[in-house]
Amino acid sequence: MTGPGWLAGTLAAVMLSVAAYCVSRLICARPCGRTTERDVDTVHCAEGVAMAGMLVPSLGLLPGVMWEAAFAAAAGWFASRAIRAHRRDGARTPPPGHYLPHLMESGAMLYMLAAVPAARAAGATAAGMGGPGGGGFGAGAFVFALFPLGYAVWTADRFTALRAPAPGPPVTGPPVTGPPVTGPPPLAPRLADCCQIAVSITMAYMLITML
Amino acid sequence: MTGARDVPARLGTPDARRCLQLALAGLWLLDAVLQCQAFMFTKGFAGMLAAAAAGNPGWAAAPVLWAAHLAGRGPALANAGFATVQLLIALAIAGRPTVKAGLAASAGWALAVWWLGEGLGGVLTGGASPVTGAPGAAVLYALLAVLLWPEGRARHQEPPFVAAGSAGVLTTRLAWLALWGSLACFTLAQASPGGLRRTFAAMASAQRGWISAMDQAAAGLLAQRGAAVSAVLAVVLLVIAIGVFLPGRAARAVLVLAVAVAALIWVAGENFGGVFTGSGTDPNSGPLLALLAAAYWPRVAGLRRAGDARTGDGRAGGAQEPVGERAGGERPVCGEVAS
């Protein structure tokens, strides 16, 4: 990454916190009688640790090729879940679009892992010349950056829409409607969405610094 | 994880106004991330701000130079502040309870940036051209914040397009006319045989790779044809300016043309807002012009009413159902408006 060190350090700390929180969700959900999406928690944990390692190289735990294998597997998993959901099209299963953001995020992680070594070299060259610019990865990084930004905004809208209904009509947008949710309640949904927003914005930042 | 992702079926699809608000929030978030590029934390950013003062009259240039001086004294701190403000605006607009605060902050901050960061978009310098981003992206953020302001209460009659919901049909159409009409005037003011060629040649030197090659090709193509191309572009911009006063389907055609022109300006003229140079602070005016066009897109219900009126089936006197009280409480959603 070619951004300032203090910013990279701060974001790395946030990502490690997200990873730790996701581990705690995986451990605590069942004993607390709550539900959680284990695959999403797992991939967010991996993303948090991997991004922290890319932001601050000294935090890198695993070689890049192992992370690439992990995120390729994650992309395959979410693609298969999206396809299965599309085929089932059941009322109780999440729609195929539910898995696409995680598929895209896994793809973005693969892109970054492939690009980071070259981006570091190019960033060092640019810094040495005293000019602007990062890795010069251009259109690919920009397109991959737009997606997490859009998803962060979407998540922020959705989770604020989940608030308890107000007595009057909503200021904007439709009311929260639909069938009641059965089964155990989700574990700390708003905190989970905050983690999602943090992961998305950090991912977009890392991709933008590769431009 | 759970939360919003686990219960999409329980949430209704956001209506058209909300979709446009979210798009605006997305642009602010992109701005915040672009503001965090390495170059922005250096004194180079202050120099970029100071450059916006060039050509402006003294009263307009002095605050720009003051802001640049201030940013130059502590570039890292100033830039971190700018990025934080943009991030908070984005999140405020994206959050439903805070959307009004976010839009108000968006308008205020954007107007400040328009003056202090963009030198009023260069409109007073005599060198403003829509091809390079005039009248400035920031003023378009402010305009969008006003046009996308939430409707306070259910109306008896649905406005013909989203932007009309907050400020009224005539006012918003006049705003569109003023914006696109001014773009046409700027284009005509810059018309000269070699004007566009020089513009593209200058941009090519600041870009790299395929974008630079594209600019050079455009400069070669426009050699000695600059005046004619500018005249044609001015006519197209004028057609777009008056297009929102046309009936539904004609207005749609003109808005499609507006989106196409915005895309052309963004790609060929603005080089994607310079985001690939490492020093672009926003995607420039192209995406915002397209977003504005979406805010003026005639609603399906509005078109239906117009068709009914022509065939004599219309309920004269506006006996339509109030918004939000249609069967099932449905509201027009993104897909309906875009259809």
Write the layout of secondary structure elements.
The complex is a heterodimer of chains A (211) and B (339).
Chain A lengths: L4 H24 L9 H18 L8 H25 L11 H30 L8 H24 L27 H20 L3
Helix pairs in contact in A: 1-2, 1-6, 2-3, 2-4, 2-6, 3-4, 4-5, 4-6, 5-6
Chain B lengths: L15 H19 L8 H9 L6 H16 L1 H20 L4 H18 L20 H11 L16 H4 L1 H21 L5 H12 L2 H14 L3 H18 L4 H22 L15 H11 L4 H12 L22 H5 L1
Principal-axis shape of chain B: globular
Decide which structural class fits the backbone of chain A.
mainly alpha
Average pLDDT of chain B: 83
Level of helix content of chain B? 55-70%
Q: Could you list the spans of chain A in which at least 5 consecutive residues all have pLDDT below 50?
A: 126-135, 164-171, 173-180
SSE pattern of chain B, N- to C-terminal: HHHHHHHHHHHHHHH
Classify the helix fraction of chain A into a percent range: 55-70%
Question: Got a strand count of chain A?
Answer: 0
Please describe the biggest sheet of chain B, giving its number of strands, its sense, and whether it closes into a barrel: none
Q: What is the end-to-end distance of chain A?
A: 10 Å
Total number of helical segments of chain B? 15
Distance between the first and last residues' Cα of chain B: 34 Å
Total number of beta strands of chain B:
0
Strand content of chain A: under 5%
- How many helices of chain A? The count is 6
Number of structural units classed as domains of chain B: 1
Order of helices and strands of chain A: HHHHHH
Beta-strand portion of chain B reads under 5%
Describe the structure using short key phrases.
A: mainly alpha; 67% helix; B: 339 residues; mainly alpha; 0% strand; globular; disordered C terminus
Describe this structure in words.
The complex is a heterodimer of chains A (211) and B (339). In chain A, 67% of the residues lie in helices and 0% in strands. Chain A has 211 residues and is mainly alpha-helical. Chain A has one domain. In chain A, helix 1 runs antiparallel to helix 6, helix 2 packs antiparallel against helix 3 and helix 4 packs parallel to helix 6. Chain A is globular. About 12% of the residues of chain A have low confidence. By secondary structure, chain B is an all-alpha fold. Chain B has one domain. Helix content of chain B is 63%, strand content 0%. Chain B contains 15 helices and no strands. Chain B starts with 15 loop residues before the first helix and ends with a helix. The N terminus and C terminus of chain B are likely disordered. At the A-B interface, helix 1, helix 2, helix 4, helix 5 and helix 6 of A face helix 1 and helix 4 of B.
